[in-house]
Design brief:
Helices cover 55% and strands 3% of the residues. It has 17 helices and 3 strands. A 3-stranded antiparallel β-sheet has the order 1-2-3. Helix 6 packs antiparallel against helix 17. The structure holds carboxymethyl coenzyme *A. Carboxymethyl coenzyme *A binds next to helix 16. GO terms for molecular function: citrate synthase activity. Pathway: Carbohydrate metabolism; tricarboxylic acid cycle; isocitrate from oxaloacetate: step 1/2.
Length: 393
């Protein structure tokens, strides 16, 4: 059986080789297929970046047109799926709904997950990327008691999503171009992050040859946790608590340092980034810009900045190299765009989808991939006798 080494949280064990995303945590570098995140954030759109991650190259114009057309063609969900929404309570967390619905897609499209059939696989991928928006928007509409708004073929990816979220039958939602670019930018920044918890989940589930929808449904659930994507919702809830508490940021910094308190500064710290999170840097600038453009003054942004300043001056955070991560400022932008707090992690999931797909595909295309099966170090009794119930004390 050989020697088994113990590395419970994968602190320094690589689970795979991958050619998708390059990350240098010491230098704060993040590149998709070699292209710096800063360049993509400035110049690309989400759909193009999704193509880059999944297919390995920036698309030519015909390639991009074909991919965009597939997304447009597959934006509706099956009418029967709309009934599922009636089964959830209106208070259901949209991440639970999203995962259930994505898993349900495998009941409607069970056949088309053969990695060797490129044409069918392209459609499966497009279906998932396109329908996830529709599902997310429908989950929101259901939760507020409004009718579902169908996708519109003349709208681009982000604009179509905003339309399904915020239009009502009596009034179309006209998407402000600044808002559309902000959504594109945020989705791009979330699009991949190599072997994070949810992506590793997608790979592990997929390694048993589970289909793409099932694997991604599992990834969505991993993302939901507050130490992962769920942190973006927690950040706003924390900032709101600080606001209710009179804006006393120092108190919360002290609380986060207290090991008995169980409280952490949400949106702070990262397993890999030990200097700064390049995504957080861009998001912070964007938060300032978009709020100014929309003429919104959000007191939570001021509290967030004060909290960041107070934490970065504190030796506890300096010594442990804890900096704001991608989730720290993103929620402030989502709020300004009109999203309710419980939708923030859903937005992260829509953004992360191309990464999950790219990793699932990379793994499936590698014929040497084996099922993921971690080992353990057993600490229980090695052998005991069975005791009949009447003799147990
Ligand atoms: N507030 C207070 N202390 C912290 C924090 C924090 N946010 N993060 C880490 N620490 C402390 C931790 O208590 C430990 O201290 P000590 O050495 O005294 O025991 C030390 O810093 C190292 O932390 P760790 O928990 O061993 O680090 P990790 O790599 O296992 O965890 C993390 C990384 C992101 C889960 C963690 O920093 C955290 O819980 N942050 C808050 C949640 C959050 O913002 N998550 C989003 C992560 S980025 C995007 C994403 O993945 O979705």
């Amino acid at each position: 059986t050989g020697l088994v080494t113990l590395d419970p949280a994968f602190m320094n064990t690589a689970s795979t080789k991958s050619a998708i995303t390059f990350l240098d945590g010491e230098k704060g570098i993040l590149r998709y297929r070699g292209i710096p995140i800063e360049q993509l954030a400035e110049k690309s759109r989400f759909v193009e970046t999704a193509y880059l991650l999944i297919y390995g190259e920036l698309p030519t114009q015909p390639e991009l047109d074909r991919f965009s057309n597939l997304l447009t063609r597959h934006s509706l969900i099956h009418e029967d799926m709309k009934h599922f929404f009636d089964g959830f309570p209106s208070t259901a967390h949209p991440m639970a709904v999203l995962s259930s619905m994505v898993c349900s897609l495998s009941t409607y499209y069970p056949e088309e997950h053969d990695i060797n059939d490129k044409e069918k696989m392209d459609i499966t991928i497009a279906r998932l990327i396109s329908k996830v928006r529709t599902i997310a928007a429908y989950a929101y509409k259901k939760s507020i008691g409004q009718p579902f708004i169908y996708p519109q073929n003349n709208l681009k990816y982000a604009a179509n999503f905003m339309h399904m979220m915020f239009a009502v039958p009596a009034e179309p939602y006209v998407v402000d171009p600044d808002i559309e670019s902000a959504i594109n930018l945020l989705f791009i920044l979330h699009a991949d992050h190599e072997q994070n918890c949810s992506t590793s989940t997608v790979r592990l589930v997929g390694s048993s040859r589970a289909n793409l929808f099932a694997s991604v449904a599992a990834g969505i659930l991993a993302l939901w946790g507050p130490l992962h994507g769920g942190a973006n919702q927690e950040v706003i809830e924390m900032l709101e608590a600080i606001q209710r508490d009179g804006g006393n940021v120092k108190k919360y910094v002290e609380l986060a340092k207290d090991k008995n308190s169980n409280f952490r500064l949400m949106g702070f710290g990262h397993r890999v980034y030990k200097n700064f999170d390049p995504r957080a840097k861009i998001i912070k600038q964007t938060a300032d810009k978009i709020l100014a453009k929309l003429g919104i003054q959000d007191p939570l942004l001021d509290i967030a900045k004060e909290l960041e300043e107070a934490a970065l001056k504190d030796s506890y955070f300096v010594e442990r190299k804890l900096y704001p991560n991608v989730d720290f400022y993103s929620g402030i932008i989502y709020r300004a765009l009109g999203f309710p707090t419980n939708m923030f992690t859903v937005l992260f999931a829509i953004g992360r989808l191309p990464g999950w797909i790219a990793h699932w595909k990379e793994m499936m295309e590698d014929t040497s991939t084996k099922i993921g099966r971690p080992r353990q170090i057993y600490t229980g009794p090695t052998e005991r006798l069975y005791v009949p119930i009447e003799q147990r004390s």
